[in-house]
Protein backbone atom coordinates (compact mmCIF):
# COMPACT_ATOMS: atom_id res chain seq x y z
CA UNK A 1 0.00 0.00 0.00
CA UNK A 2 1.02 3.62 -0.45
CA UNK A 3 1.77 5.79 2.56
CA UNK A 4 -1.64 7.42 2.16
CA UNK A 5 -3.43 4.06 2.10
CA UNK A 6 -1.54 2.82 5.18
CA UNK A 7 -2.39 6.03 7.03
CA UNK A 8 -6.09 5.77 6.19
CA UNK A 9 -6.18 2.09 7.20
CA UNK A 10 -4.67 3.04 10.58
CA UNK A 11 -7.16 5.89 10.92
CA UNK A 12 -10.15 3.63 10.17
CA UNK A 13 -9.29 1.38 13.12
CA UNK A 14 -8.78 4.39 15.37
CA UNK A 15 -12.17 5.82 14.36
CA UNK A 16 -13.83 2.44 15.00
CA UNK A 17 -12.30 2.23 18.48
CA UNK A 18 -13.42 5.79 19.18
CA UNK A 19 -16.97 4.76 18.24
CA UNK A 20 -16.73 1.96 20.78
CA UNK A 21 -15.71 4.49 23.44
CA UNK A 22 -18.77 6.50 22.46
CA UNK A 23 -21.00 3.48 22.98
CA UNK A 24 -19.55 3.03 26.46
CA UNK A 25 -20.44 6.66 27.22
CA UNK A 26 -23.96 6.20 25.81
CA UNK A 27 -24.45 3.10 27.94
CA UNK A 28 -23.24 4.93 31.04
CA UNK A 29 -25.89 7.61 30.67
CA UNK A 30 -28.75 5.38 29.53
CA UNK A 31 -28.50 1.79 30.79
CA UNK A 32 -25.50 1.17 33.04
CA UNK A 33 -26.32 0.17 36.63
CA UNK A 34 -25.30 2.85 39.14
CA UNK A 35 -22.98 0.48 40.96
CA UNK A 36 -20.80 0.04 37.87
CA UNK A 37 -19.42 3.59 37.89
CA UNK A 38 -15.93 2.75 39.21
CA UNK A 39 -15.58 -0.19 36.82
CA UNK A 40 -16.70 1.91 33.86
CA UNK A 41 -14.18 4.61 34.76
CA UNK A 42 -11.37 2.07 34.50
CA UNK A 43 -12.77 0.78 31.20
CA UNK A 44 -12.93 4.31 29.78
CA UNK A 45 -9.39 5.01 30.95
CA UNK A 46 -8.16 1.79 29.33
CA UNK A 47 -9.70 2.49 25.93
CA UNK A 48 -8.47 6.09 26.04
CA UNK A 49 -4.97 4.78 26.69
CA UNK A 50 -5.22 2.63 23.57
CA UNK A 51 -6.66 5.50 21.52
CA UNK A 52 -3.98 7.91 22.69
CA UNK A 53 -1.26 5.42 21.71
CA UNK A 54 -2.78 5.08 18.24
CA UNK A 55 -3.21 8.84 17.78
CA UNK A 56 0.44 9.46 18.73
CA UNK A 57 1.97 6.49 16.88
CA UNK A 58 5.28 7.74 15.33
CA UNK A 59 4.33 5.97 12.10
CA UNK A 60 1.70 8.68 11.54
CA UNK A 61 4.40 11.32 11.22
CA UNK A 62 6.22 9.19 8.66
CA UNK A 63 3.04 8.47 6.68
CA UNK A 64 2.10 12.16 6.68
CA UNK A 65 5.55 13.08 5.36
CA UNK A 66 5.28 10.60 2.49
CA UNK A 67 1.56 10.69 1.67
CA UNK A 68 0.38 12.56 -1.41
CA UNK A 69 -3.04 14.17 -1.88
CA UNK A 70 -4.71 13.63 -5.25
CA UNK A 71 -7.90 15.62 -4.71
CA UNK A 72 -9.85 17.81 -2.28
CA UNK A 73 -10.95 14.82 -0.19
CA UNK A 74 -7.49 13.33 0.34
CA UNK A 75 -6.00 16.79 1.01
CA UNK A 76 -8.60 17.42 3.71
CA UNK A 77 -7.99 13.94 5.17
CA UNK A 78 -4.28 14.63 5.52
CA UNK A 79 -4.92 18.06 7.01
CA UNK A 80 -7.28 16.72 9.69
CA UNK A 81 -5.12 13.72 10.57
CA UNK A 82 -2.10 15.99 10.83
CA UNK A 83 -3.99 18.37 13.08
CA UNK A 84 -5.13 15.52 15.32
CA UNK A 85 -1.62 14.08 15.51
CA UNK A 86 -0.14 17.45 16.41
CA UNK A 87 -2.63 17.93 19.26
CA UNK A 88 -2.43 14.35 20.53
CA UNK A 89 1.36 14.31 20.71
CA UNK A 90 1.32 17.39 22.92
CA UNK A 91 -0.76 15.62 25.59
CA UNK A 92 1.03 13.07 27.81
CA UNK A 93 -0.53 9.61 27.88
CA UNK A 94 -0.85 9.94 31.66
CA UNK A 95 -2.97 13.08 31.31
CA UNK A 96 -5.21 11.65 28.57
CA UNK A 97 -5.87 8.52 30.61
CA UNK A 98 -6.52 10.39 33.84
CA UNK A 99 -8.93 12.77 32.12
CA UNK A 100 -10.91 9.82 30.74
CA UNK A 101 -11.04 8.20 34.18
CA UNK A 102 -12.01 11.27 36.20
CA UNK A 103 -14.62 12.56 33.74
CA UNK A 104 -16.26 9.14 33.68
CA UNK A 105 -16.49 9.15 37.49
CA UNK A 106 -17.46 12.82 37.60
CA UNK A 107 -20.53 12.31 35.45
CA UNK A 108 -22.16 10.01 38.01
CA UNK A 109 -21.13 12.22 40.93
CA UNK A 110 -22.66 15.23 39.17
CA UNK A 111 -25.94 13.39 38.47
CA UNK A 112 -26.28 12.35 42.11
CA UNK A 113 -25.35 15.80 43.44
CA UNK A 114 -27.89 17.36 41.08
CA UNK A 115 -30.63 14.97 42.18
CA UNK A 116 -29.85 15.63 45.86
CA UNK A 117 -29.38 19.41 45.44
CA UNK A 118 -25.96 18.99 47.07
CA UNK A 119 -23.38 21.20 45.38
CA UNK A 120 -20.72 20.40 47.97
CA UNK A 121 -20.75 16.74 46.94
CA UNK A 122 -19.66 17.70 43.41
CA UNK A 123 -17.18 20.51 43.98
CA UNK A 124 -14.09 18.40 44.88
CA UNK A 125 -14.48 16.34 41.71
CA UNK A 126 -15.09 19.43 39.58
CA UNK A 127 -11.93 20.99 41.02
CA UNK A 128 -10.00 17.96 39.78
CA UNK A 129 -11.61 18.15 36.34
CA UNK A 130 -10.76 21.85 36.03
CA UNK A 131 -7.18 21.23 37.18
CA UNK A 132 -6.70 18.56 34.51
CA UNK A 133 -8.32 20.68 31.78
CA UNK A 134 -6.06 23.59 32.67
CA UNK A 135 -3.09 21.24 32.37
CA UNK A 136 -4.38 20.00 29.01
CA UNK A 137 -4.80 23.57 27.78
CA UNK A 138 -1.24 24.39 28.83
CA UNK A 139 0.00 21.45 26.76
CA UNK A 140 -1.93 22.59 23.70
CA UNK A 141 -1.83 26.35 23.97
CA UNK A 142 0.16 28.71 21.83
CA UNK A 143 -1.43 31.69 23.57
CA UNK A 144 -4.86 31.81 25.20
CA UNK A 145 -5.55 28.65 27.25
CA UNK A 146 -9.28 28.77 26.53
CA UNK A 147 -8.68 28.97 22.77
CA UNK A 148 -6.76 25.70 22.98
CA UNK A 149 -9.84 23.94 24.41
CA UNK A 150 -12.30 25.75 22.13
CA UNK A 151 -10.38 24.46 19.12
CA UNK A 152 -11.50 20.91 19.92
CA UNK A 153 -15.12 21.89 19.30
CA UNK A 154 -14.94 24.76 16.80
CA UNK A 155 -11.63 24.52 14.93
CA UNK A 156 -10.23 27.88 13.95
CA UNK A 157 -12.47 29.94 16.24
CA UNK A 158 -11.13 32.11 19.05
CA UNK A 159 -12.72 33.36 22.25
CA UNK A 160 -12.04 36.94 21.13
CA UNK A 161 -13.99 36.43 17.89
CA UNK A 162 -16.89 34.74 19.67
CA UNK A 163 -16.98 37.44 22.35
CA UNK A 164 -17.25 40.06 19.59
CA UNK A 165 -20.24 38.24 18.07
CA UNK A 166 -21.86 37.95 21.50
CA UNK A 167 -21.33 41.68 22.11
CA UNK A 168 -23.23 42.43 18.88
CA UNK A 169 -26.06 40.10 19.90
CA UNK A 170 -26.50 40.92 23.58
CA UNK A 171 -28.01 44.41 23.24
CA UNK A 172 -30.61 43.55 20.55
CA UNK A 173 -31.60 40.36 22.39
CA UNK A 174 -32.10 42.11 25.73
CA UNK A 175 -33.98 45.00 24.09
CA UNK A 176 -36.33 42.64 22.22
CA UNK A 177 -36.80 40.47 25.30
CA UNK A 178 -37.75 43.49 27.40
CA UNK A 179 -40.28 44.63 24.81
CA UNK A 180 -41.78 41.14 24.67
CA UNK A 181 -42.06 40.91 28.45
CA UNK A 182 -43.75 44.31 28.49
CA UNK A 183 -46.38 43.15 26.02
CA UNK A 184 -49.98 42.48 27.01
CA UNK A 185 -49.77 39.04 25.39
CA UNK A 186 -49.17 36.46 28.14
CA UNK A 187 -49.34 32.82 26.96
CA UNK A 188 -50.51 30.53 29.75
CA UNK A 189 -49.19 27.00 30.38
CA UNK A 190 -51.34 23.95 29.73
CA UNK A 191 -53.04 22.70 32.86
CA UNK A 192 -53.09 18.98 32.15
CA UNK A 193 -51.21 15.78 32.91
CA UNK A 194 -49.38 14.35 29.91
CA UNK A 195 -48.68 10.62 30.51
CA UNK A 196 -45.17 9.43 29.78
CA UNK A 197 -46.10 6.67 27.34
CA UNK A 198 -48.23 9.00 25.22
CA UNK A 199 -45.43 11.57 25.22
CA UNK A 200 -42.94 8.97 24.00
CA UNK A 201 -45.27 7.97 21.17
CA UNK A 202 -45.60 11.61 20.11
CA UNK A 203 -41.83 12.10 20.36
CA UNK A 204 -41.34 9.23 17.93
CA UNK A 205 -43.89 10.73 15.53
CA UNK A 206 -42.04 14.06 15.62
CA UNK A 207 -38.68 12.37 15.08
CA UNK A 208 -40.10 10.61 12.04
CA UNK A 209 -41.47 13.92 10.71
CA UNK A 210 -37.93 15.30 10.69
CA UNK A 211 -36.55 12.31 8.80
CA UNK A 212 -34.93 10.25 11.56
CA UNK A 213 -34.04 6.81 10.22
CA UNK A 214 -35.22 4.36 12.88
CA UNK A 215 -33.37 1.45 11.25
CA UNK A 216 -30.14 3.26 12.19
CA UNK A 217 -31.15 4.86 15.48
CA UNK A 218 -33.11 4.55 18.71
CA UNK A 219 -34.72 6.79 21.35
CA UNK A 220 -34.03 6.31 25.06
CA UNK A 221 -34.25 8.28 28.32
CA UNK A 222 -31.40 10.10 30.08
CA UNK A 223 -30.86 12.80 32.71
CA UNK A 224 -29.67 15.21 30.01
CA UNK A 225 -30.88 14.69 26.39
CA UNK A 226 -28.09 13.99 23.92
CA UNK A 227 -27.20 12.49 20.55
CA UNK A 228 -24.51 9.84 20.22
CA UNK A 229 -22.77 8.02 17.41
CA UNK A 230 -23.23 8.41 13.68
CA UNK A 231 -23.45 6.66 10.35
CA UNK A 232 -25.50 3.52 10.79
CA UNK A 233 -25.77 3.92 14.58
CA UNK A 234 -26.95 7.43 15.50
CA UNK A 235 -28.81 7.31 18.83
CA UNK A 236 -30.80 9.98 20.66
CA UNK A 237 -32.21 10.42 24.16
CA UNK A 238 -34.87 12.61 25.74
CA UNK A 239 -36.37 13.27 29.17
CA UNK A 240 -40.00 13.62 30.22
CA UNK A 241 -42.02 15.70 32.65
CA UNK A 242 -45.70 14.78 32.80
CA UNK A 243 -46.59 18.44 33.46
CA UNK A 244 -44.57 19.87 30.54
CA UNK A 245 -44.70 17.96 27.24
CA UNK A 246 -42.70 20.57 25.32
CA UNK A 247 -39.44 19.67 27.06
CA UNK A 248 -39.71 16.16 25.64
CA UNK A 249 -41.00 17.13 22.19
CA UNK A 250 -38.44 19.82 21.49
CA UNK A 251 -35.46 18.05 23.04
CA UNK A 252 -36.32 15.10 20.79
CA UNK A 253 -36.52 17.30 17.68
CA UNK A 254 -33.28 18.99 18.73
CA UNK A 255 -31.40 15.70 19.04
CA UNK A 256 -32.93 14.45 15.78
CA UNK A 257 -31.28 17.44 14.11
CA UNK A 258 -27.91 16.19 15.33
CA UNK A 259 -28.63 12.58 14.42
CA UNK A 260 -29.96 13.25 10.91
CA UNK A 261 -26.81 15.27 10.19
CA UNK A 262 -24.74 12.19 11.06
CA UNK A 263 -27.03 9.83 9.15
CA UNK A 264 -26.79 11.95 5.98
CA UNK A 265 -22.99 12.14 5.72
CA UNK A 266 -21.56 10.46 2.61
CA UNK A 267 -21.04 6.75 3.50
CA UNK A 268 -17.72 6.87 1.64
CA UNK A 269 -16.39 8.96 4.55
CA UNK A 270 -17.28 6.34 7.19
CA UNK A 271 -14.43 5.69 9.68
CA UNK A 272 -12.44 8.69 8.44
CA UNK A 273 -12.00 12.22 9.83
CA UNK A 274 -14.64 13.38 7.32
CA UNK A 275 -17.25 10.92 8.57
CA UNK A 276 -18.79 13.09 11.27
CA UNK A 277 -19.94 16.66 11.78
CA UNK A 278 -17.21 19.20 11.13
CA UNK A 279 -17.67 21.16 14.37
CA UNK A 280 -20.04 21.50 17.28
CA UNK A 281 -21.17 24.91 16.01
CA UNK A 282 -22.19 23.44 12.66
CA UNK A 283 -23.69 20.44 14.46
CA UNK A 284 -25.68 22.74 16.68
CA UNK A 285 -26.96 24.62 13.63
CA UNK A 286 -28.64 21.42 12.54
CA UNK A 287 -30.33 20.77 15.87
CA UNK A 288 -31.39 24.37 16.41
CA UNK A 289 -32.81 24.91 12.92
CA UNK A 290 -34.92 21.76 13.37
CA UNK A 291 -36.01 22.72 16.87
CA UNK A 292 -36.68 26.42 16.31
CA UNK A 293 -36.92 27.77 12.77
CA UNK A 294 -38.81 24.65 11.68
CA UNK A 295 -40.21 23.02 14.82
CA UNK A 296 -41.47 26.20 16.48
CA UNK A 297 -42.82 27.75 13.28
CA UNK A 298 -46.55 28.48 13.05
CA UNK A 299 -47.16 25.85 10.35
CA UNK A 300 -45.52 23.06 12.34
CA UNK A 301 -47.07 24.04 15.69
CA UNK A 302 -50.46 24.08 13.95
CA UNK A 303 -49.91 20.44 12.99
CA UNK A 304 -48.54 19.65 16.47
CA UNK A 305 -51.61 21.23 18.08
CA UNK A 306 -53.81 18.69 16.28
CA UNK A 307 -51.54 15.77 17.16
CA UNK A 308 -51.42 16.72 20.84
CA UNK A 309 -55.19 17.18 20.94
CA UNK A 310 -55.56 13.68 19.49
CA UNK A 311 -53.09 12.24 22.01
CA UNK A 312 -54.11 14.08 25.19
CA UNK A 313 -57.61 15.44 24.61
CA UNK A 314 -58.79 19.05 24.32
CA UNK A 315 -55.95 21.41 25.17
CA UNK A 316 -58.26 24.34 25.88
CA UNK A 317 -56.54 26.73 23.43
CA UNK A 318 -56.64 27.24 19.68
CA UNK A 319 -53.71 26.82 17.27
CA UNK A 320 -52.70 30.50 17.41
CA UNK A 321 -52.57 30.53 21.22
CA UNK A 322 -50.72 27.20 21.10
CA UNK A 323 -48.08 28.71 18.79
CA UNK A 324 -47.62 31.60 21.23
CA UNK A 325 -47.28 29.13 24.11
CA UNK A 326 -44.63 27.05 22.32
CA UNK A 327 -42.69 30.29 21.81
CA UNK A 328 -43.41 31.76 25.23
CA UNK A 329 -40.71 34.13 26.53
CA UNK A 330 -40.10 33.99 30.26
CA UNK A 331 -37.25 34.31 32.75
CA UNK A 332 -36.64 30.63 33.42
CA UNK A 333 -33.65 28.97 35.06
CA UNK A 334 -33.02 26.05 32.71
CA UNK A 335 -31.02 26.56 29.51
CA UNK A 336 -32.47 23.57 27.66
CA UNK A 337 -36.00 24.78 28.36
CA UNK A 338 -35.40 28.47 27.64
CA UNK A 339 -36.96 30.44 24.81
CA UNK A 340 -35.05 31.61 21.74
CA UNK A 341 -34.37 35.09 23.13
CA UNK A 342 -33.02 34.01 26.51
CA UNK A 343 -31.14 30.95 25.24
CA UNK A 344 -28.15 32.82 23.87
CA UNK A 345 -27.95 34.89 27.08
CA UNK A 346 -27.69 31.61 29.01
CA UNK A 347 -24.76 30.64 26.80
CA UNK A 348 -23.03 33.99 27.25
CA UNK A 349 -23.14 33.51 31.03
CA UNK A 350 -21.53 30.08 30.80
CA UNK A 351 -18.97 31.28 28.25
CA UNK A 352 -17.73 34.05 30.54
CA UNK A 353 -17.62 31.84 33.64
CA UNK A 354 -15.76 28.96 32.03
CA UNK A 355 -13.21 31.30 30.45
CA UNK A 356 -12.49 32.63 33.92
CA UNK A 357 -12.27 29.10 35.35
CA UNK A 358 -9.69 28.02 32.79
CA UNK A 359 -7.74 31.27 33.13
CA UNK A 360 -7.61 30.87 36.91
CA UNK A 361 -9.56 34.09 37.49
CA UNK A 362 -12.38 32.11 39.09
CA UNK A 363 -11.91 29.13 41.39
CA UNK A 364 -14.36 26.24 41.58
CA UNK A 365 -15.12 27.02 45.22
CA UNK A 366 -16.51 30.42 44.13
CA UNK A 367 -18.35 29.18 41.04
CA UNK A 368 -21.81 28.78 42.56
CA UNK A 369 -21.82 32.30 44.00
CA UNK A 370 -20.47 33.76 40.75
CA UNK A 371 -23.14 31.92 38.75
CA UNK A 372 -25.99 33.03 41.03
CA UNK A 373 -24.86 36.66 41.05
CA UNK A 374 -24.49 36.80 37.28
CA UNK A 375 -27.82 35.03 36.76
CA UNK A 376 -29.63 37.57 38.93
CA UNK A 377 -28.03 40.40 36.94
CA UNK A 378 -28.84 38.89 33.52
CA UNK A 379 -32.29 37.42 34.15
CA UNK A 380 -33.65 39.28 37.17
CA UNK A 381 -34.51 36.13 39.13
CA UNK A 382 -32.79 34.46 42.07
CA UNK A 383 -31.43 30.91 41.87
CA UNK A 384 -32.70 28.99 44.90
CA UNK A 385 -31.19 25.53 44.35
CA UNK A 386 -28.15 24.10 42.54
CA UNK A 387 -30.17 22.22 39.92
CA UNK A 388 -31.49 25.60 38.76
CA UNK A 389 -27.95 26.94 38.65
CA UNK A 390 -24.50 25.62 37.91
CA UNK A 391 -25.46 21.94 38.41
CA UNK A 392 -28.10 21.95 35.65
CA UNK A 393 -25.72 21.09 32.78
CA UNK A 394 -23.61 17.94 32.42
CA UNK A 395 -20.87 19.59 30.35
CA UNK A 396 -18.38 20.72 32.99
CA UNK A 397 -18.58 17.40 34.81
CA UNK A 398 -17.31 15.59 31.70
CA UNK A 399 -14.66 18.19 30.90
CA UNK A 400 -16.36 19.90 27.95
CA UNK A 401 -14.79 23.32 28.49
CA UNK A 402 -14.98 25.33 25.27
CA UNK A 403 -18.19 23.56 24.19
CA UNK A 404 -20.84 26.02 25.42
CA UNK A 405 -20.18 28.92 22.99
CA UNK A 406 -20.77 26.59 20.06
CA UNK A 407 -24.45 26.44 21.03
CA UNK A 408 -24.90 30.16 20.37
CA UNK A 409 -22.63 30.00 17.33
CA UNK A 410 -24.91 27.22 16.08
CA UNK A 411 -27.87 29.58 16.43
CA UNK A 412 -26.03 32.15 14.32
CA UNK A 413 -25.32 29.53 11.67
CA UNK A 414 -28.93 28.31 11.81
CA UNK A 415 -30.17 31.84 11.14
CA UNK A 416 -28.03 31.99 8.00
CA UNK A 417 -29.11 28.54 6.83
CA UNK A 418 -32.78 29.30 7.43
CA UNK A 419 -32.58 32.45 5.30
CA UNK A 420 -30.87 30.64 2.42
CA UNK A 421 -33.04 27.53 2.66
CA UNK A 422 -36.37 29.35 2.60
CA UNK A 423 -35.28 31.40 -0.39
CA UNK A 424 -34.46 28.18 -2.23
CA UNK A 425 -37.41 26.01 -1.08
CA UNK A 426 -40.66 28.04 -0.94
CA UNK A 427 -42.87 25.04 -0.16
CA UNK A 428 -41.32 24.39 3.26
CA UNK A 429 -44.12 25.96 5.32
CA UNK A 430 -46.90 24.23 3.38
CA UNK A 431 -45.27 20.86 4.04
CA UNK A 432 -44.55 21.66 7.71
CA UNK A 433 -48.28 22.32 8.15
CA UNK A 434 -48.73 18.64 7.19
CA UNK A 435 -46.10 17.49 9.69
CA UNK A 436 -43.56 16.91 6.93
CA UNK A 437 -40.09 18.46 7.24
CA UNK A 438 -38.68 16.47 4.31
CA UNK A 439 -38.18 19.45 1.92
CA UNK A 440 -36.09 21.20 4.57
CA UNK A 441 -34.21 18.02 5.36
CA UNK A 442 -33.47 17.44 1.67
CA UNK A 443 -32.01 20.94 1.29
CA UNK A 444 -29.88 20.58 4.42
CA UNK A 445 -28.72 17.11 3.35
CA UNK A 446 -27.75 18.27 -0.12
CA UNK A 447 -26.11 21.56 0.81
CA UNK A 448 -24.45 20.77 4.13
CA UNK A 449 -24.86 17.38 5.77
CA UNK A 450 -23.59 15.06 3.03
CA UNK A 451 -20.17 16.75 3.10
CA UNK A 452 -19.41 15.87 6.73
CA UNK A 453 -16.01 17.29 7.62
CA UNK A 454 -14.91 18.05 4.06
CA UNK A 455 -14.66 21.82 4.69
CA UNK A 456 -13.75 23.92 7.76
CA UNK A 457 -16.74 25.13 9.81
CA UNK A 458 -17.22 28.64 8.42
CA UNK A 459 -16.55 27.40 4.89
CA UNK A 460 -19.22 24.72 5.42
CA UNK A 461 -21.82 27.39 6.24
CA UNK A 462 -20.60 29.73 3.50
CA UNK A 463 -20.85 26.93 0.92
CA UNK A 464 -24.42 26.10 1.96
CA UNK A 465 -25.68 29.69 2.22
CA UNK A 466 -23.70 31.51 -0.41
CA UNK A 467 -22.62 34.27 2.00
CA UNK A 468 -20.33 34.81 4.98
CA UNK A 469 -21.93 33.65 8.27
CA UNK A 470 -22.97 36.50 10.55
CA UNK A 471 -25.47 37.25 13.31
CA UNK A 472 -27.74 39.45 11.13
CA UNK A 473 -30.11 36.75 9.79
CA UNK A 474 -30.67 35.31 13.28
CA UNK A 475 -31.50 38.70 14.81
CA UNK A 476 -33.81 39.54 11.90
CA UNK A 477 -35.63 36.20 12.23
CA UNK A 478 -36.08 36.63 15.99
CA UNK A 479 -37.32 40.20 15.64
CA UNK A 480 -39.90 39.35 12.97
CA UNK A 481 -41.10 36.27 14.80
CA UNK A 482 -41.52 37.69 18.28
CA UNK A 483 -42.86 41.05 17.20
CA UNK A 484 -45.58 39.08 15.38
CA UNK A 485 -46.41 36.77 18.26
CA UNK A 486 -46.47 39.53 20.89
CA UNK A 487 -48.17 42.21 18.74
CA UNK A 488 -45.26 44.63 19.08
Description:
Its EC number is 3.4.17.19. One of its GO terms (biological process) is proteolysis. It comes from Thioclava pacifica DSM 10166. The protein is mainly α and 488 residues long. Helices cover 63% and strands 3% of the residues. The protein folds into two domains: 3-140, no CATH class; 159-485, Neurolysin, domain 3 (Orthogonal Bundle). The protein contains 20 helices and three strands. It has a three-stranded mixed β-sheet, with helices on both faces. A hairpin with a 2-residue loop joins strand 2 and strand 3. The radius of gyration is 22 Å and the shape is globular. The termini are far apart.
SSE blueprint and pairings:
Layout: H1 3-30, H2 37-55, H3 58-66, H4 72-88, H5 93-116, H6 123-140, H7 145-150, H8 159-181, H9 196-209, E1 219-221, E2 227-230, E3 233-238, H10 245-264, H11 280-294, H12 298-312, H13 319-326, H14 340-359, H15 367-379, H16 405-424, H17 428-432, H18 438-447, H19 457-465, H20 472-485
Parallel strand pairs: 1-3
Antiparallel strand pairs: 2-3
- The whole-angstrom Rg is 22 Å
Number of domains: 2
Strand order in the sheet with the most strands:
1-3-2
**Number of alpha- plus pi-helical segments:** 20
Order of helical and strand elements = HHHHHHHHHEEEHHHHHHHHHHH
**CATH class designation of the largest domain:** Mainly Alpha
User: How much of the residues is beta strand, in percent?
Assistant: under 5%
Which fold does the CATH topology of the largest domain refer to?
Neurolysin, domain 3
Helix content: 55-70%
Mean pLDDT: 96
How does CATH name the architecture of the largest domain? Orthogonal Bundle
Broad structural category: mainly alpha
DSSP strand tally? 3
Largest sheet: 3 strands, mixed
Amino acid sequence: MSAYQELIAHQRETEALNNIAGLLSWDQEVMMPRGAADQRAEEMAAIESVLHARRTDPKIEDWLARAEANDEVSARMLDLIGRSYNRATRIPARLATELARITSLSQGIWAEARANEDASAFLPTLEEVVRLKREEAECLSEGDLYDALLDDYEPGATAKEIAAIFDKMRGPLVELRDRVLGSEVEPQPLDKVFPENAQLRLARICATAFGYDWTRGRLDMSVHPFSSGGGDDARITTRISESDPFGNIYSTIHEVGHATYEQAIDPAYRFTPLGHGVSMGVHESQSRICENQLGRSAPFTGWLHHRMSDAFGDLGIDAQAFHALVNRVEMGFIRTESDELNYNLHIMLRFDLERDLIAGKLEVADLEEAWNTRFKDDFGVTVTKPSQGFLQDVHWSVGLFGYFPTYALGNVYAGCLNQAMRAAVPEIDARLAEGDASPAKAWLDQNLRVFGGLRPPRDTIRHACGFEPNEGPLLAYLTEKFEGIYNL
